[in-house]
Amino acid sequence: MNKKQGISVRTVVAIGIGTAIFFVLMRYIPIPTGVPDTNINLAYGFLALMGAIFGPIAGGLIAFLGHMFNDLTWGEPWWTWIVADGIYGILFGLTRKYLNIENGDLTKRKLVLFNVYQVLIAILVWGIIAPTGDVLVYSEPASKVYLQGITSVICNALSVGILGTILLVAYARTRSKKGGLKKES
Amino acid sequence: MKKPIISFQDVSFQYQSQSEPTLQHLSFDIFPGEKVLIAGASGSGKTTISRLMNGLIPSAYPGKLSGKILINGKSVTDQTIFDLSLRVGTVLQDPDTQFVGLTVAEDIAFALENDGAKQSVLKQKASEWAKRLKIPAILNNHPQEISGGQKQRVSMAGVLVDEGKILLFDEPLASLDPVAGRESIELIDDMQKNGETTTVIIEHRIEDVLYRPVDRLILIDQGRLVANETPDKILKSGILAKLGLREPLYLSALKYAGVDLNQVSNVDSVDKVNLSAQTTQALQQWVKPVSARKQKNDATPILQAKNISFSYDSKQVLNKLNLSLNGGEMVSLVGRNGVGKTTLSNIITGFLRQSAGDLILNGHKINEASIKERADHIGYVLQDPNMMISKNVVSEEVALGLTLRGIAPDEIEKRVNETLKVCGLFEYRHWPISALSFGQKKRVTIAAILVLNPELLILDEPTAGQDWQHYTEMMTFIQNLNRKIGISVIFITHDMHLMMEYTDRVVVLNNGVIAYDDQPMKLFANLDLLKQASLVETSLFTLAQRIDVDPEALIASFINQEKVVQANE
Amino acid sequence: MNNNVLIGYKQRDNFVDRLTGTTKLIGLIALSVIGMVSFDTRFLLVLTICSLALFRLSGIKFREVSFILSFITAFSVLNLIAVYVFGPQYGVHLYGTEHVIWQGVGPYNLTWEQLFYEFNLFLKYIFTVPLALVFLMTTNPSEFSSSLNRIGISYRISYAVSLALRYIPDVQNDYRQISKAQQARGNEISRKGKLTHRVKAAAQILLPLIFTSLDRIETISQAMELRRFGKLKKRSWYAEKPMKRNDFLALLVIALVVLVGIYLFRVNAGRFYDPFR
To answer: Is C163–A20 a contact, with Cβ atoms under 8 angstroms apart?
Structure first.
């Protein structure tokens, strides 16, 4: 076989299709929380799955590109949050080795640890990196952007905790060995 | 003697993920300039053969290979998927996944872009091949704007630009309507005649491929080669039906009439098959005159559409359409792709709202009813079962609609079990859906709708992509539902034989209105309408014309006999 | 869900339209970044006026974008109010002076500094809108990935962007069919019910979409390998446009604007232009 140059074709396609889905979820299918202007973004539950399957490069680019396209269609590329999203995606990609989801052995322990991890990275990215970026770059009042940050931490951790977990479990099931099935009367 | 361009020598292959080999000791040669059809029921291993030829094995599907495969005299194991792609051009089954460019021109040029060709070469080749495949007018169109047949032409152009020697088609007819399918087979034939290409077609719709002659037919069953002969010899041997494949209809008719196929020449084409005086007489005697069809007169309509109009992007799709359906009816809804069949069914189910007109269900207007409210009476099953399945286990999936309606658990269990039994899925109730075959999945989606006790079922292409055996199972299943629980069924279909054998009424949609609404048989006499609906007459019709009998009578005799045969099995 | 929201491109045949995607991409990134960093009001005003002028030149009709404009206006106003609520003294803090216009309760008074600061924010919110819309609506999506490749991004990632644009309409269509089919069974994304329930219901709807898409990733990558994607270190692009004189001129102007922006940091001894001293 040829020596691999750069990322695999499968990863390229995963980034393309993943970005398309991330964009559609973010742009068109927000779940209102009841608090004005705050939605649960389903794209993040999806991102958790894509990161776990395809790794950090795919995770990072899906989030970065998907968020960028979304912002562009509103005419407002908010670079600090776009970059933060890219970091979030990379961090999800780092779970690939540990979860080893493509072989289907997703234990309860792994799921619990994954959820601890996802809450931590939500705090890191949406509670610290993104708002700090806004303070430094856009020079907005800290109390405002950190409050926005905390809201995002909660919403995104919820999206990943519920949708992400459901998707991971469902995906792992499709990958598990099919032996031992018997017809029952 | 010529040297083979493709040579399989005692080839066995086992996928890494499977416990049994998919191919076993396969040997055959294909020679330059030949046109070969490789056929087999689903699961026979025919797709694996194509993956071995184009290098997807081992690049995308690892496994254990033994024996030797030579392409152009060189072993495939010494070549990468990229090397092989220059020799073997593959047209995949689903044109939507093969079409990766943003426009037609870009997609045709895709392979050359990857070779780093100059832009002037890209433009020249793209327009040249678009012309040769008769699609120059759509060069700048997006994939969303063109038909399935056009997409397949783009796919063909996209591999022909390599001017490789071998063209490999993986189920080219799977996603096309009959007219587009015929055009595609004609086009493959023209390409074959003009160039020096070798063509390999993998298909289970043998009669449709034989619309244009092929040199050789290779039959695969359970990973083994069972025949490698001219179509004429294989068709005479009558082996197809034993492999779960459909024999050309006109040949089955000849057999039913007691004709010995070994005494007949040119059996591979309905137009050329030699009908001696004796054969003709046998057929004419076999055909029974039609007894007047007993009309089910359940005169109360369950669903009426009155003056329904709908437009999309300022294009009028439906224009004051009227339709009425009676209880217990089985109806085919036909028309060319994009004519509005899906739109009409989406309006009936409430997925879309009509811009004018009324829908009346059991005498009550349902214009304002929600999707969910309508679903208690009207069930809609999408073509692709994977688009409907959202649970992991069969019984959970079937229960979903009831659970969401807040029905008591023991009632749910009772209804789910009943439905599973009706659908022949009860033994699989604890299985993960991912372990089921395509046909079984389809049945799960039907069960998940049936459990809501609808009075009307709309099935979008229920038999698409299935070989004859699975097709027969699916249709028998639906027919039994209709008989047992009296449910009305609308089939959205292109399958002429399905219309004739299983439905009493065909509704043709054209130009936003119902262009025809009557028995299937009478539609075949109306060639103009057939063409508008993108349908083609079956070979039984052609046969009837050749022996000068009433096509309706011949088809009816055929269907009766087929039922007898099925009952005996 | 209109298929053309993102790909609102149509050929308009004017000066902006004829620039290469590369030029427009560099322009969008460079200008939006410098405008994001700078707090020089004069500079931001000029940027805003220029980008509005560009919008006029591009020939985009107002009604094509009116929905987005009204959304952005609402978004900006809400944000500006939030900034005032959370930091009524933030302007005073930034500029170090206090000119009170109206004395309110506690910290909630109104100062020229606060007004001025929020005016800056307002300009920052809106100046990108015409730029981004011009970029989206005058750049041929086919040309976009070749532009990314030209500015140094690997062709694999550039092609991934092209694939995203190719499949967004398909994903939208699939989603529509799938969600309606789920609604028929009683499953929908509603505003009622407990939040966790709503997300779980959404998961049921999304599962078929996501799993059919994962299958699709496999077949598409096979289809691409069968046509030699990834064979070489480079690839050529059917839709690539050559850089012309106007492109270089435009890039020169963009570079000048950015340089002026950076120069103003020195003049102002920081990012802020302060009229109060």
So the answer is: yes
Can you tell me whether residue B508 is helix, strand or coil? Answer: strand
CA distance B430 to chain A (A): 8
* Bridge partners for B379 per DSSP: B457
185 residues of chain A, pLDDT tens digit each: 344 567 899 999 999 999 999 999 998 888 877 776 678 899 999 999 999 999 999 999 999 999 999 999 888 899 999 999 999 999 999 999 999 998 888 899 999 999 999 999 999 999 999 999 999 998 889 999 999 999 999 999 999 999 999 999 999 988 866 555 677 76
What is the number of alpha carbons within 13 Å of residue B8 lying toward its C-beta?
23
pLDDT tens for residues B471-504? 888 888 889 889 888 899 999 988 888 888 899 8
Query: Are A178 and B434 in contact (CB < 8 Å)?
Result: yes
Asked if A170 and C207 count as a contact pair (C-beta separation under 8 A), the reply is: yes
Domain boundaries, chain C: 12-140+241-277, 155-238
3-state SS class at A62: helix
Buried b (16+ CB within 10 A) or exposed e, B327-355: bbbbbbbbbbbebbbbbbbbbbbbbbebe
Q: CA-to-CA distance for B83 and B285, rounded, in angstroms?
A: 59
C-beta separation of B189 from B141 below 8 A: no
Inspect the interface and report whether the beta carbons of C121 and A140 lie closer than 8 Å: yes
Distance from the first to the final alpha carbon of chain B: 46
Contacts of A142 in chain C (CB under 8 A): 87
For residue C234, give both structure tokens.
């480079």
Q: Domain B298-377+454-518, what architecture?
A: 3-Layer(aba) Sandwich (3.40)
Distance CA C145, CA C25 (A): 11
Dihedral, CA of residue B494, residue B495, residue B496 and residue B498, to nearest 10: -130
Q: Are B243 and B40 in contact (CB under 8 A)?
A: yes
Buried residues in B230-263 as b, exposed as e (16+ CB within 10 A): ebbbbbbeebbeebbbbbbbbbbbbbbbebebee
Q: What are phi and psi of C19, to 5 degrees?
A: -65, 155
Contacts of A89 (CB under 8 A, 6+ apart): A47, A50, A51, A56, A58, A59, A60, A61, A62, A63, A64
Q: What is the ipTM of this complex?
A: 0.91
Min Cα–Cα distance to chain B from A185, Å: 5
Indicate the pTM of the whole model: 0.92
With beta carbons less than 8 A apart as the criterion, state whether B448 and B381 touch: no
- Whether C21 contacts C139, CB under 8 Å: yes
For the purposes of burial, counting CB atoms within 10 Å of the CB of A49, is it exposed (0-12), middle (13-18) or buried (19 or more)?
buried
Domains of chain A: 9-175 (1.10.1760.20)
Region C116-128: mean pLDDT is: 92
Binary contact (A1, B434; C-beta < 8 A): no
List of residues 6+ apart from B447 with CB closer than 8 A:
B398, B419, B420, B422, B423, B425
Q: What is the pLDDT of residues B245-256, one digit of tens each?
A: 889 999 999 999
Q: Which chains touch A (3 or more CB pairs under 8 A)?
A: B, C
Burial class (CB in 10 A: 0-12, 13-18, 19+), C107: exposed
Q: Choose the closest CB to C238 out of B56, B119, B142.
A: B119
Q: Where along chain B do its domains lie?
A: 6-243, 298-377+454-518, 384-450
Select from 3.90.1140.10, 3.40.605.10, 3.40.50.150, 3.40.50.300 the CATH code of B6-243: 3.40.50.300
User: How many beta carbons lie within 10 A of that of residue A184, not counting itself?
Assistant: 10
Q: How many Å apart are CA C236 and CA B112, to the nearest integer? A: 8
